[in-house]
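User: Here's a chain of 561 residues. Predict its fold as tokens.
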Amino acid sequence: MDGEALNIVLGGEAGQGLVTLGELLAKTLVRSGYSINVTQDYQNRVRGGHNTFRIRTSPDPVLAPQEPIDLLVALSAQTPDLLGKDMSSQGLILADRALQLQGGSLEVPYSELADSRYVNVAALGVLGGLLGLDHHVALQLVHDNFSRMGAEVIEKNRQALDAGFAWSRGRQTALRRLPPAADRLRRLMLNGNEALVLGALSAGLRFYSFYPMTPSTPIALHLAACAEKMGLVVEQGEDEIAVINMALGASFAGAPAMVGTSGGGFALMVESVSLAGMTETPIVIVVGQRPGPATGLPTRTEQGDLEFVLHSGHGEFPRAIFAPGDVEQCFHLARRALELAEQYQTPVFVLTDLYLADCYQAVPPFALESLAQCGFGAAQPPVSTPYRRYAITEDGISPRLLPGMSEHLVVADSDEHDEAGHLTEDLSIRARMVEKRLRKGQGLARQTMPPEYCGDDRPELLLVSWGSTRGSALEAAATLRAQGVKAATLHFAQVWPLVPEQFAARLENAGQVVSVEGNACGQFARLLRRETGLHIRRHVHRYDGLPITPEFILRELGTQL
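Assistant: Prediction complete.
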């Protein structure tokens, strides 16, 4: 793992401004040219409890969270008690003098530096000085962040920032400073939900419906904030059943549509997933995974819903499932999902999880000018008369006209139907319609993204991961290679359809194959065995609600030796 990285952890109670301080510090680091990986840990309550905002940062790319803490910023007295055991050998605890902690920490007189309303900005100055960050970068960020609040607020925050920098400048501590960043290329600080929103908007999203459920609710909030500017409708329904049916109605009328939920909410949507399959209506469904069953741990992370999503809905019909491995992939795969849903007139899923949804990373600006136009809502295609909405075609894709946009009658029915869309119980037509729909799956398979392979050829150890475990697997493999082990990773950002010809040889040529998953049963490993016949016998599974880290992978591998 990166020896120059620093792991900064802010700990405190909900309501203390933990996230505000964390986001300000993370933005300052990004603007200063550093890479970041942010992990947020919070309890299911509005105030109280104990939360953390973890920022791992380095001049070099940071792919995953880290366990040992280099700088612990204690906003409450219980923070050192809970997290002190995780300090690195040269770690530093930074605490408010008013907490009166018993030794072992650097006490900061925040009440002397700023009024209580501006303590978070004073703390930003203290951290900036200790880390060796550019004062002017932090000052510009504070100005940008509070510019709408008036000159007096800006000035008070500037004074607090200056006081924090002045107090910490030149102070000698065991904490090592960040090495200078090589450049300050313009980058965006985004979390997974924000990147997913941008990707969907770039693809032409026009309708989003939701019922609030962690961790997908911020998707709706971000979309609602730009709905008027982007010509987008964002609708909160009374429950998830209404939400998905609203989206199907919008899609039937021609608006590219998406819904977001988590496992418990998705459980209510599955009947309408089948409706989308039967009516061949495009829809994208984002499932932000968290631990179940039932309400489970609503503010923790897991990868426990893969099999549920894969088999959701009764009957047989094609689908595609994406599982982004990082924030940048959230952008591109949200866009890809909308494109494929439209092309194949079928449900497409994007599987995230709470860790990835909340994880901030520094990403280069997306090259929008190089992205092709998706062409939603284009001129209606020429069709033969009489129009047959479900015409049986070689590739299974039938001509899709929008109701009211031509002289043709567009008919849809949730029952089995003939080519014109009318209900039928002719069993020969039934068989032909099933085969027609399934042929679209063959097209989806031809467009399946191959998994990403990194590392040594014919490795002694191959880590197989999917979704948000990508970065931790990559860093664990890099550590193993530094120790003389031939190691590699195989990461799947698309988990269905699977095309064994794309990756089977990699599995067969590895000495040992280990699946890395955030669930208890090895759901993806079971899927690989079903599709390829290859049985992965070693597993690194985590299901306590915390994200998989490189250290966790290495510990688990060590116990299996």
